Amino acid sequence: MVVGNTASVQIAKKRFLINFIKHKEAKMTDQRLMTMIIVSNILSAYYGNKASFCAVNNKEPDDAEKEDLLKRVITMFENLSTSYLKDIEEIAEGAK
């Protein structure tokens, strides 16, 4: 039931790490690296929410439920980025 979700998260994390390592070799732009990190976090949150959905409802979500899960994850990240925008900007400036 939830086993596939765990494997999917692990695959996403491995892909992220591989791309992160390639960043050192390919001199990836800061913007692209930041995008990869954000996408990796969104995927991880999505699959975590999907696993919770499966555990609570004892079934895989249908397409509409999957879309709702993804919308909630994206909304969460939008709210966090808005709430912590000043902190994020300060961290980014400090990293330069």
Q: Helices, strands, pairings?
A:
Blueprint: H1 3-26, H2 30-57, H3 63-83, H4 85-95
Helix pairs in contact: 1-2, 2-3
Explain briefly what this protein structure is.
The protein has 96 residues and is an all-alpha fold.
Write up this protein.
This protein is mainly α. The chain has one domain. 88% of the residues lie in helices and 0% in strands.
Could you tell me the number of beta strands? 0
Order of helices and strands: HHHH
Cα-atom Rg, whole angstroms?
16 Å
Averaged pLDDT, please? 78
Strand content: under 5%
Portion of residues within helices:
over 70%
- Structural class based on helices, strands and sheet pairing: mainly alpha
Inertia-based shape = flat
Q: Helical region count?
A: 4
Counted up, domains total: 1
Any low-confidence stretches, pLDDT <50, length ≥5? none
Specify the biggest β-sheet. Answer: none
Distance between the termini: 45 Å
Which short descriptors sum up this protein?
mainly alpha
